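$ ./design --mode recover --in tokens.txt
reading tokens...
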């Protein structure tokens, strides 16, 4: 009986860590919503929005060759998971005057997965 209870508890924990953790592969599917405007990976170009390689730890408005809005340039943001999470949920609410017209990703798990996907790329677009 103890063995059965232990196995059941282990199964619950395993399912929770998958359900509530970060899943880069799922994040890749979420990024498909972003890809019309943003790119990641080797030789990723700026599009309607800047490329997102090495996003975390980077200062907002700092990708060479991209014409940022004054609001983004003056935001003072250095992208952390927390900053990005708030921003991707409500871009215009976090940086008033941003040119990003995306309504945001509202689902917590989708945001976590998107973060995991973006964290998988270094500043040169190489997989970490």
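writing sequence...
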């Amino acid at each position: 009986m103890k063995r059965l209870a232990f196995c059941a508890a282990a199964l619950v924990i395993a399912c929770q860590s998958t359900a509530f953790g970060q899943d880069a592969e799922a994040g890749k599917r979420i990024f498909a919503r972003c890809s019309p405007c943003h790119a990641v990976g080797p030789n990723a170009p700026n599009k309607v929005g800047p490329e997102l390689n090495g996003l975390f730890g980077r200062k907002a408005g700092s990708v060479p060759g991209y014409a940022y809005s004054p609001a983004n340039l003056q935001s003072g943001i250095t992208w952390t998971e927390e900053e990005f999470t708030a921003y991707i949920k409500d871009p215009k609410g976090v940086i008033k005057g941003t040119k990003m017209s995306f309504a945001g990703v509202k689902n917590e798990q989708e945001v976590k997965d998107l973060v995991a996907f973006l964290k998988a790329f270094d500043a040169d677009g190489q997989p970490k």
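exit 0
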